[in-house]
Amino acid sequence: MIKDLEGWRRRHKKPVLVSEYGAETVAGLHWEPSLMFSEEYQTDFMEKYFKVFDVYRKEFLIGEVRFLSKSLLNEEACLELC
Predict the structure, then answer these.
(1) Range of the domain at 11
(2) First-residue to last-residue Cα distance in the chain
(3) Could you tell me the pTM of the whole model?
């Protein structure tokens, strides 16, 4: 992530917005230590990203938007969006 952020900034010389990032997770799946697709893995993943974002927010990162596919998969959300 650090290499990507610095590369985008160097190449485009503009503020950077990171969108649609995250870790695929199976709701209710728990595993210690964290295992891919577990809720613990998602938590670990996001904590690492947030630490990087905190550093670059002071320099050129103007925001971030997580990928939230779950909201598009349930009927209530679809009714609200459609």
Answers:
(1) 2-81
(2) 34
(3) 0.71
